[in-house]
Amino acid sequence: MRHLMSPLDFSVEELEKLMNLANDIEQNPKKYAHACDGKILATLFYEPSTRTRLSFESAMIRLGGKCLGFASADNSSAAKGESVSDTIRIVSCYADICAMRHPKEGAPLVASMFSTIPVINAGDGGHQHPTQTLTDLLTIRSLKGRLDHLTIGLCGDLKFGRTVHSLISALVRYDNIRFILISPDELRVPDYIRNDVLKANHVDFKEVTKLEDALPNLDLLYMTRVQKERFFNEEDYVRMKDFYILDKAKMDLADPDMLVLHPLPRVNEISVEVDKDPRAAYFKQAQYGVYARMALILTLLGIEVE
User: Fold this and answer.
1) Is the predicted pLDDT of residue 266 greater than 50, yes or no?
2) Of the residues 52, 131, 133, 299, which is catalytic?
3) 52 included as an active-site residue
4) Can 146 be counted among the known catalytic residues?
5) Helices (H), ranges, the chain
6) Binding residue ranges
């Protein structure tokens, strides 16, 4: 039995196989429509989610399986004080695979230690979001044709953004990747990402404050929102939330082939006028998320479709 806690749980070769499967699912959906007949996915979401929870449920339903679970800790026995370890022991009796989102770093890892079914980390605090990373890698490879020789701008909340932390950790394994980290001083990447991931892997990166300075040099811009739920101080959030707004004027500075990604939800960091730009790929990215999670479910359940 295998779990997914971090994007590094899969080797580069395994990721390639998983993405090939996702692309085949995209091209041949009917072939996979009954692959998970009789299987049940449990979605245990202790923290609000739209895309991640619904895309997991969509993925399982499209594979012919069924779903159960909860969308808030208030709607579960966690509100009565039940531990994560006890919850997963019970859920293991009801389902064949589980996706868990939790505000505390490491909670899905704890669950995996007590589970008798595969557990997928669907986001734990500001730590990791591996299935978003699978989605991001699949989107980049499908639209750019490669995962190497890229200059990638990461913009916004790089301190608390678990999608950013996971994506950096995954991409440093590919050749000639360069990062431009765009954030205010207060929201720069944590030291463990800077030192243990970027510097330790001898990856070229620089940290800047102005988005305009970075745009002309990018193959890919990954925007993130400033996450209100991660701030302890309301004043700090209000001061930071509008620090970066990508609009048409800024897009005019970028390369004609640059892609814009965003894990969503957005607040106002990408103007709606950008949605019409052919370089805006964040809604395609959400669609790729379903294919990535379908491929992941099949892989962790050990189901092969001829």
Assistant:
1) yes
2) 52
3) yes
4) no
5) 12-27, 51-62, 84-94, 107-114, 130-144, 162-171, 191-193, 211-214, 234-240, 248-251, 282-301
6) 51-52, 80, 101, 129, 132, 162, 225, 264-265
